[in-house]
Amino acid sequence: MCGIAGVFGISEVERFEPYMAKAVNCLSKRGPDFQKIQSFPNAILGHARLSIIDTSAAGNQPMSDSAGRYTIVFNGEVYNFKEIAAQLESKGVKFTSGTDTEVLLYAYIHFGVECVKMFNGFFAFAIYDKEKQDLFLARDRFGIKPLLLYRDDSMIAFASEMKALMELPITRELNPVALKAYLQLNYIPTPLSILKGIEKIDPGTYLQINKDGEITKQQYYKLPEKSVEKYDYEAAKAELIKRMEASVQKRLIADVPLGAFLSGGIDSSVIVALASRHTRQLNTFSIGYKDEPYFDETKYANLVAKKYKTKHTVFSLSNDDLYAHLDDILDYIDEPFADSSAIAVYILSKLTRKHVTVSLSGDGADEVFSGYNKHLADYRARKGGFLNALVKAGSPIWKALPKSRNDKFSNLFRQLDRFATGLKKSPAERYWRWCAFVDEAAAEKLLKTFSHKDQAAFLKLKAKYLDEFEQENNINDTLRADMQLVLQNDMLVKVDSMSMANSLEVRVPFLDHNVVDFAFALPEEYKIGGGFRKRILKDAFRELLPEELYNRPKHGFEVPLLKWFQTSLRSRIENEWLEKDFISAQGIFNLHEIEALKRKLFSNDPGEVHAQIWALIVFQSWWKKYMI
User: CA angle, corner 249, sides to 244 and 253, nearest 5?
Assistant: First the structure.
């Protein structure tokens, strides 16, 4: 894992070198081991390295081929690089390092743009051709690694993080369409960014940019479109075990200390069970919550650690520990992102980094195999029946009852209310609403202005993610949409940014494309049905995991935002982030609506307003750092 940046199509290279030096320095947490920029006739490439494979100086970047024609900057890991290296050596290539970077470079030289289809891993990279003075950019299949692009009349620039681009002489103009999406979803979907002119390159896509700045974009990967039953259920379980074991084994390659996150859920436990087969003693890491016993799952993690004799470390945190890192997290975020669970991921990454440089994670399993409550709800909504009619009829009751994620009954009322609302919508609109914290009208009301042109662009953004629902009519539509919307723009952004803030590489075996392609070729009944989610995943690995993991409810950790907002942070909310004169002078938000949210927050019935307040706090913190 590293950080990359570059500018292309510039005529005054020397003028841009100081900017690029600052841009690469911004990426030093992604790559603390070595930073360098290299200039060319019409481009500058920069790299910040986190050394994982061949930690010697031979692996430093930017890296050029032996002839000096091609130069690469690369972020990520290609796990099958040794197999590709063997093919290249048969063609006469002689490697000077043991890195996957050099293999990737020569794969491009010998196989051209088709090389991206050969790579098993996660990556974002750029290759500059000094002879043609052109640039090639590529991003991995699922968007595990970020890659942003900026273009104006004078240059094209790319980087792993927006903060690097903002060190360049670029125009900073707020994108109102991205802001509306953010206020509804608490994150900003690709290809939008919070700034006009900066876009996120789509996963599974490469760009060819010629010396005149003309860009050709090509999608080289997309999820399977149809469910095709190629295996009976028992054969499918066996095949899943085989593919997952191969995926985990590939991701154990490292020349630095390696471990695994272990939450106590099925997903991370599967990873630990498989990894333990191939390591002498695996390091595993869990977070416990002293003040929130409802969310503490360390007893389940301990069962798995004991079964596989891992070297297990539990980080037992109080709410004060979480609160203490709040400003550090806000300071690192360079685009508004308001998934509050990022706080826990940040602390887990920070503490884990004291022990290892690489950690495996169970991320992706919920989206691939149908693990969320909304998946079961969507499945039931599609099936219809008397219970659906009963819940729908009870809609006025659910709306009147107290709703919160912090205890069993109020969370049930919250879920019933969302389910009843979703039953009134089409599958596509229901999906979008269940991904959101508030409806579109509530998000738009927060904005002082939102034009018809902006609304048309917003609807186009929605259509990009909802066209899956025009095809089949089963849960696989929802899973494909989740892979492209939620996984890519929320879950993977959270893990990448919070781990990289602490110079920790996190690998995700469930997102090996061989596993994903297999899963999406299976019929929906292999994944969900009869009240069960992730059916095939749970059944395939049942013999490897403690039975206690199967007899427990699924619930994610909820950061105690409401408690903080009503106590420790109340003064900052009222006098800093959402202060009346600041909101008026800023000219972005509807002051009346902001005041209404504050009144609700500090009332006896705040409901779930804290999620909206958190989104506003994150945005205001970002605005004050980057836009004033």
Answer: 145
d(CA 625, CA 628): 7
- Residue 402 confidence (pLDDT): 66
Write the Ramachandran bin of 94: left for phi over 0, alpha for psi from -120 to 50, otherwise beta.
Answer: beta
The CA distance from 557 to 348, in Å, is 13
Integer angstrom CA distances of residue 37 from 25, 56, 436: 10, 18, 41
Q: What is the DSSP string of 167-204?
A: TSS----B-HHHHHHHHHHSS--TT--SBTTEEEPPTT
Residue type, 562: L
Alpha-carbon gap, residue 103 to 94, rounded angstroms: 10
Report the C-alpha gap between 51 and 523 in whole angstroms. 41
Alpha helices per DSSP H over 326-470: 326-332, 342-352, 365-369, 373-383, 386-393, 395-400, 408-423, 427-435, 440-445, 452-466
Distance CA 270, CA 386 (A): 37
Q: What is the pLDDT of residue 408?
A: 66
CA distance 371 to 579: 40
Cα separations in angstroms, 539 against 240, 528, 554? 10, 12, 17
Nearest CA-CA partner of 218 in 295, 336, 116:
116
Which candidate, 29, 20, 24, 25, places its Cα nearest to that of 328?
29
Report the candidate in 457, 5, 552 with the shortest Cα–Cα distance to residue 264.
552
The DSSP output letter for 488 is I
Task: Provide the whole-model pTM.
Answer: 0.94
Q: Could you tell me how far CA 100 lies from the centroid of its own chain?
A: 23
Three-class secondary structure of residue 322 per DSSP? helix
User: What whole-number distance in Å separates Cα of residue 172 and Cα of residue 622?
Assistant: 13
Distance CA 560, CA 577 (A): 19
Closest alpha carbon to 186 in 322, 325, 341, 324: 341
Give the Cα separation of 493 and 70 in Å (integer): 30
Q: How high is the pLDDT of residue 400?
A: 60
Closest by CA to 598, choosing from 624, 618, 575, is 575
The residue ranges of the chain whose pLDDT is under 50 are: none
Cα–Cα dist 371/537, whole Å? 10
Which amino acid is located at 459 in the chain?
Answer: L
Sign of CA dihedral 324, 411, 443, 171: positive
What is the set of active-site residues?
2
List, in order, residues 6 or more apart from 467 with CB less than 8 Å away. Answer: none
What span, in angstroms and rounded, lies between the C-alpha atoms of 589 and 7? 34
Which H/E stretch holds residue 7?
A: strand 2-8
* Contact between 314 and 304 (Cβ < 8 Å): no
Tokens encoding 251: 């991701």
- DSSP state, 106? H
375 burial (CB, 10 Å; 0-12 / 13-18 / 19+) is buried
- Cα separation, 22 vs 17, whole angstroms: 9
Q: Give the model confidence (pLDDT) of 563-616 as tens digits.
A: 999 999 999 999 999 999 999 999 999 999 999 999 999 999 898 899 999 999
